[in-house]
Amino acid sequence: MNISGAISIKPLRIMRKKPLDFLLFSLTWVFAAVTVAVLVFVIGYILVRGVPNLTPSLFAIRFTPDNQSLLPSLITTAILVFCALVIAIPIGVFSAIYLIEYARRGSFYVKVVRVMTENLTGIPSIVFGLFGYLLFTSILGLGYSLISGTLTIAIMVLPLIIRTTEESLKSVPDTFREGSFGLGAGRLRTVMRIVLPSAMPGILAGVILSVGRIVGETAALMFTLGSVARIPGSLMESGRTLAVHMYILSGEGMFVGQAYATASVLLVLVICINAISGQIAKKISKK
């Protein structure tokens, strides 16, 4: 019997001998197919509605009421993502390293920090936006500016980076650490040369999720970064990200086509970031 015949007969045998297993097997395939179909439909719908509206005027360096250019928002998004990750990644990664590698496992302090980070991960972004508005925009007097939005977003993605980094460090076998200690390496060298490279794919996955959340954020940035359609000349100037730009265009009701075009660019941007990060993670894991 060939392989294809064996594969086609296998579900029938499962159905006869174990009907419940066959039911679960069928439901798994059905739900997987539905998930893929919904994903393809959403992506296809956005691209079909948005790509025809992509015109050269949407990529003008300056925004005007006539061209509705998204380029200033695209550049502002890139600057915001870079600045937020520069703040959040070192703090989040080294905090997770301390909790896993240096703090006493199971201590009350570690449990409190983990509970707090898990709770902060589930808080709606509007709460972070109000917090950033009260602290950075009003109390500290930073106003609607790039620095206010950067600090707010960095705080928002920090719990996510800490939790994903913790889980990645936990997945590294203790035999790696014991072998390094047995060869005479210290704890710092073991963490930097053995543990951290082994956990890098998982850490990058957390960074990718953080980038996706930053790129798609609107509520927190409208309270802190503002909605001025220009490229910020400094950290103290206001701006507008792609998500906020899309929200404003769709809300006005006059530029729905440009809003879909902005959504298409945003979708392609996220896909490219995920693909590049995935390739980097593969290269690091091979090394």
Q: Describe it for me?
A:
- With 287 residues, the protein is mostly helical.
- It has 2 domains: 51 residues; 229 residues, MetI-like fold (Orthogonal Bundle).
- The chain contains 11 helices and no strands.
- The longest helix is centred in the N-terminal third of the chain and has 32 residues.
Gyration radius (Cα, Å) is 24 Å
Q: Total helix count?
A: 11
Class by SSE composition: mainly alpha
Helix content, binned percent: over 70%
Largest sheet: none
Mean pLDDT: 85
CATH fold description of the largest domain: MetI-like fold
Number of domains: 2
Provide the CATH top-level class of the largest domain: Mainly Alpha
The general outline is globular
How far is the first residue's CA from the last residue's CA? 42 Å
Q: Count the beta strands.
A: 0
Quick recap of the structure?
By secondary structure, this protein is mainly α. 76% of the residues lie in helices and 0% in strands.
What are the SSEs and their pairings?
Elements: H1 3-17, H2 19-50, H3 71-102, H4 108-121, H5 125-139, H6 146-170, H7 174-182, H8 187-215, H9 219-222, H10 242-252, H11 256-286
Write out key terms for the chains shown.
287 residues; mainly alpha; MetI-like fold
